[in-house]
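Notes to self, Transcription antitermination protein NusB:
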Amino acid sequence: MKRHEAREKAFQILFQLDMLEEDIEITIQERLDEEKKDDFLQMLVLGVVKEKQAIDEIISSHLEKWSLQRLPSVEKTVLRIATYELKYMEDIPENVSINEAVNLAKMYGDEKSGKFVNGVLSKIIK
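result:
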């Protein structure tokens, strides 16, 4: 599985967890078992879940006129994945993480999602 596809699958899993408030362990296992064993996908999903509180604090501290609770789930999920990559995965160039996040936001969000995600992530890397 290519990393772009793994990011998209990670987004879908994490979005589902955020929306449905299901048992995290069961949902992760079910969704990851459906996919071919992919280390990058598992690293993203499990890493974001494990570091969610720290990631949310980072995102919150870089939001202007928004709170994390008010963010639409698409943008929140994309920002969590990208922030995890930026802060915990040093082998991925920042511009790659940001570009992938903007593309996911455009794909799943509205016409302003990509610009919003890009703006927040640009502040995080400064």
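- The radius of gyration is 13 Å.
- The longest helix spans residues 3-20.
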